[in-house]
Amino acid sequence: MSPKHVEAMYDVVIVGAGAAGLSAALGMVHSPEFAERRALGEEPSVLVISKLQPLRSHTGSAEGGIAASLGNVEHDDWHWHYYDTVKGGDWLVDQDAARLLAQEAPAAVINLERMGVAFSRTEDGHIAQRRFGGHTADFGQQPVKRAAYAADRIGHQILHALWQQCVAAGIAFAEEWYVTDLVLDEARTKVEGVVAFDTHTGAVHAVHARNVMLATGGAGRLFHTTSNSWDLTGDGMALALNAGLQLEDVEFMQFHPTGLAHTGILLSEAARAEGGVLRNAEGEAFMQRYAPGHADLAARDVVSRAIRSETDAGRGVADPKDPAGRRDCVWLDMRGIDADHMNEVLPEVVATIRKYANLDPAVDLIPVKPTAHYTMGGIPVTVDGEVYRWADGRRATVEGLFAAGECSCVSVHGANRLGGNSLLDACLFGTRAGRSMAARLEGAAAAPDAGDETVQDRVDDAAAARRTQVADLLAAAKVGADADADDEDTADGNPYQLMAELGAVMESALAVHCSEDTIAAAREDIAERIAPQAASLHPHSDTPAFNQELTAIWEVRHLIDLGSAMLEASDARHESRGSLYRMDFPARDDGRFLAHSMTDAEGGIGWQPVHIEDMPPQARSY
Ligand SMILES: Cc1cc2nc3c(=O)[nH]c(=O)nc-3n(C[C@H](O)[C@H](O)[C@H](O)COP(=O)(O)OP(=O)(O)OC[C@H]3O[C@@H](n4cnc5c(N)ncnc54)[C@H](O)[C@@H]3O)c2cc1C
């Protein structure tokens, strides 16, 4: 679906059509301000741009559940959810944001139910809930069933329900358009629009907008072993960096403990919630040793590090499909789960294991290893979704620019996200950002329009520069093809291969643990080998339409920008906290680092104090 024409000026442009982008669109159209404009016959112009058909967004792969203290199965309280979120995030969480998350979660889940999400049910018809790592009752006393679920297809349910509501509300989509630039005014105080490449035709569009929202998802593709789909290349974060903005806490990348060996595909935490147990080569259920009480359902960073300690100590098992025979996996033992129950509540997990490992979880042990899963850091936003820069010790918001979902950092996950909290973050803060944009619709008619020829049009300029770049890249493809025909050896590298090489570099630098040396080696490798290759990439076909190599080239360049920022921020944090474990600084250091890193494209880093309200930092034991 493409818009019939590109408007001269949009009221709102949303980049991304996962849970965050779609929630924002609905939050806006269901607002009183929107209804008011409509009643006056002034239909606001809204466009959702997505590089994928919306139903392919990664939200659709979420399996396990969405957290909310509904208390449908066991007594629960939002204060406990709030506490778990702060503690799970190793106290790098902004407590005003986490309080909101926990307090408003039940209403957000009920809202999803009203949108049409078909949750699994309890016997008496309530939304069913299951255990998830790090979620507890009575402030850490015992585990609690808090994750609302739909078998193991919660993301699929949410994505389809939200999309259908958007279609019903008449929202315009520009599908398979790739946003290449975010355009701000010169002082970086106000948004002006975006530049988008229509992959169907190869046309580059200047999209002027009074409000822009980035909802482009995470960046797991920075790492070779990842649970993330191919599109999660951190575009929105790189767009912000390249527009002169900062990223917050970008050094925190969550490794999920149970990636299916050799593929990295996620086996949901629900597998352990339903009774699955991790075992080392000696058959020991080792998590009891690392996190007594919580064992296999301790927070993800704790479990991933425990797996790494076991494999480093020689108690790992080899993935039968790894030709090198590395013993870098452990077993996931699901044999204790009743087979009928397993098929009923974990159908996707069972199907994934059958399809990709040719094993039967009812009788076989499954090789697993930590897989890059969730980007905790991102574009800094307030609880109303406004993007800001951290300068001179204060937040300076960028007028009209918003972000939500995995590409953003409202700082509810801190240094380590709890399972079930990210769909909640995307839906809840996405909706809030949509409402914030709606509140800005009122004054829109008074704002200056595009087309004033005395003012330099930065969106048009950026689009013109992209058109030139596209033409140059396509011309290079033609020359390259002719040269390749003469000499096989001159064939240039391809972006997918370079992405894989970058993934290997980042994995050896930062996966699960790191040190000054591993970071330095990666920086050098990127500067001397990867970045120059990326700069000389060109597509191998000179066709502008459906030329996927063109977008892959931009994606790999975005990954390099983002990976470099991640390495800088990891280097600057001389402590271990949550998902970032520095072997050379193994202790948490609240005296110096109870602060959010704010990293820019040049590697400059500022520190923003963590917003502590009523929970002073404590030691974290699981
Ligand atoms: C396998 C898996 C299982 C998960 N399970 C759970 C779970 O059980 N519970 C939970 O809470 N969380 C889970 N998560 C995390 C959660 O699903 C995500 O954090 C969340 O869905 C992200 O939503 P989003 O809207 O921010 O991004 P996405 O759903 O990733 O959507 C990103 C959108 O941005 C668009 N886009 C990106 N770049 C561009 C560009 N340059 N131009 C135009 N469009 C662009 C894409 O087309 C897409 O529409 C899981 C994640 C994975 C990978």
UniProtKB/TrEMBL annotation:
It is a peripheral membrane protein. Residues 500-622 form the Fumarate reductase/succinate dehydrogenase flavoprotein-like C-terminal domain. The keyword Transmembrane helix applies. It holds the Pfam family FAD_binding_2. It catalyses: a quinone + succinate = fumarate + a quinol. It comes from Bifidobacterium pullorum subsp. gallinarum. Its EC number is 1.3.5.1. The chain crosses the membrane at residues 12-30. The active site is at 300 (proton acceptor). GO terms for biological process: anaerobic respiration; electron transport chain. It is found in: Membrane. Its main location: membrane. Belongs to the FAD-dependent oxidoreductase 2 family. FRD/SDH subfamily. InterPro entries: FAD-dep_OxRdtase_2_FAD-bd (IPR003953), FAD/NAD-bd_sf (IPR036188), FRD_SDH_FAD_BS (IPR003952), Fum_R/Succ_DH_flav-like_C_sf (IPR037099), Fum_Rdtase/Succ_DH_flav-like_C (IPR015939), SdhA/FrdA/AprA (IPR030664), Succ_DH/fumarate_Rdtase_cat_sf (IPR027477), Succ_Dhase_FrdA_Gneg (IPR014006). This is succinate dehydrogenase. The lineage of its organism: Bacteria, Bacillati, Actinomycetota, Actinomycetes, Bifidobacteriales. NCBIfam families: sdhA_frdA_Gneg (TIGR01812). Keywords: Electron transport, FAD, Flavoprotein, Membrane, Oxidoreductase, Transmembrane, Transmembrane helix, Transport. One of its GO terms (cellular component) is plasma membrane. The keyword Membrane applies. Its cofactor is FAD.
